[in-house]
Amino acid sequence: MLGGGMRQAGIIAAGGLYALRNLYNRLADDHAMAKQMAEGLAAIGIDVIPPESNIVIWKFEPLKCTRFVELCAKHGLKIIVFSEGLIRAVPHYGNTSDDVQRAITIIAAVMKEL
Questions:
Q1: pTM of this prediction exceeds 0.85
Q2: How far is the C-alpha of 65 from the C-alpha of 77, rounded, in Å?
């Protein structure tokens, strides 16, 4: 009744404004890390959808997606089930190229655990 919904939209918009003002120059780095991750995953035999941004999505056996994500989390890698049979990871300004390589190493190890 007093416009509470607009306050919530402002909080979401604030994050976008921060990114535009402070992180815009880093987008190329984020995209390069996504490409590095996609190439690394493809090299270990994972069917990756070529990234067009910093979002890396790959195909995975639907019945094993949840278990795969859980095992990655135990190794310190946060990824999500994007939809049935798809996994998603997003390298961002808090990551480095070394972090991406570590993620690839974790994923390769988890693949052997399944």
A1: no
A2: 14
